[in-house]
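Z., the sequence and structure:
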Amino acid sequence: MITTLPLRWIEKINPYYFESLEEDEEIMWNTLWNFNDCEWSEENAKKVRDCGMIPVEVDGLIFCALSGCGMDLTATVIYTQYKLTGTIEFDYAKYIKNEPQDYVEYVIGKKKRTELLSYINNYFYL
């Protein structure tokens, strides 16, 4: 299950959330994602950063924010869900399989795309 929150909601309940960001981090989109009610931990925060997203703690859960704009970064969201939960949504599997290889590799890299495809090929019939 994916839960999304608008960034303005975070600003409303925690006006100091900017202070929790690392020096070079800037949330560029207005949506935060949480996958399967994944809890906040430093380990999960590191996974989120390693996937290219920004971790934000909300009520003990870890939400993920995109730090880029101007292009489709769906592959980054998909890879982050996979790393945090070990699974991805069916629609995300179709996206990875159908999106041009060079574009997905440009966004997340060849190794991460290969990792996702291996999972998809084992668990989905597409």
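Helices lie at 7-13, 42-50, 74-85, 90-98, 101-108, 110-123. The chain has a mean pLDDT of 87.

Let me know what you think.
H.
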